[in-house]
Amino acid sequence: MQRLALIAISAALSIGTAFAAGNADLDIDKVNGSIHVPDNATVGKLSTVNGSIHVGDGAHAASATTVNGSIHLGTNATIDALDTVNGGIHVGAGTKIARTIEAVNGSITLATGADVAGKVSNVNGGIALTAAHVGGGIETTSGDIDVGANSRVEGGMLVNKDNSWFRFGVSRDPRVIIGPHAIVKGDLVFKRAVQLYVSDSATIGKIDGAKAIPFSSDKPPQ
Q1: Is residue 104 in some structural domain?
Q2: What phi and psi values does residue 85 have, to the nearest 5 degrees?
């Protein structure tokens, strides 16, 4: 028992030393269990099947992938790509994503100053930006979209047709909001009915498949 305890302590110390040293080759791969990257650490690829992933403030990782679990990035972190199947994704203030964010069943939120170079996409779950930037467009099927005040999106927006055969509860049209002084460059394409609200101070591209409802306050009516 004492030998096993010493081995566990030694392993923990080795991982801690690798984090502290900033090891970009340190991949962490689990089946069951969450992954936690400390503040200001540098690691490689993060992958788990059943568990969440938390990347601390100022940390860097090559990528983060999970099947059943959420992904949470702290402030001013950097990471190449995020991918989850069942779980939400939160990107902290000032954090930079070099490529894409992809989810299937889960919400995606980008805090103030978050910057995603590529596409942000999911199937089910809301997508919300707070004074954030997305360089490769936004795509969803059943989720609401809130491009908050002073946010900027290049690459347009796409809401796909819902072809799913199973629906639980009362179905409603997705609610899409383009907030004050927000910018969406590129076409806004809607292949299903949506409630589209556009601030009178926002700048957007061509709308295809919906009619914009203008509003002049901070948020449209509920």
Answers
A1: yes
A2: -100, -60
- How far is the C-alpha of 43 from the C-alpha of 46, rounded, in Å? 8
For the chain, how many structural domains are there in total? 1
CB 38 within 8 A of CB 56: yes
13 falls within a domain: no
Q: 101 in a domain, yes or no?
A: yes
Kindly state the average pLDDT of the residues 132-158: 97
Helix (H, G, I), strand (E, B) or coil at 16: helix
Q: What tens digit of pLDDT does each residue of 106-137 get?
A: 999 999 999 999 999 999 999 999 999 999 99
Cα gap 213→192, rounded to integer Å: 16
Residue type, position 61, single letter:
A
Q: Which domain holds residue 37?
A: 23-215
Q: Which is it for the CA torsion 4, 6, 10, 12, positive or negative?
A: positive
Q: Which amino acid is at 35?
A: I
| Tokens matching residue 166 | 């199973």
Q: What tens digit of pLDDT does each residue of 1-60 get?
A: 443 333 333 333 334 444 544 566 799 999 999 999 999 999 999 999 999 999 999 999
Q: Are strands 195-199 and 213-215 parallel, antiparallel or unpaired?
A: parallel
How many degrees, rounded to 5, is the angle at CA 77 between CA 73 and CA 82?
A: 50
Q: Is position 95 within any domain? A: yes
CA distances from 177 to 129, 180, 187, 199, 200 (A): 10, 10, 15, 8, 12
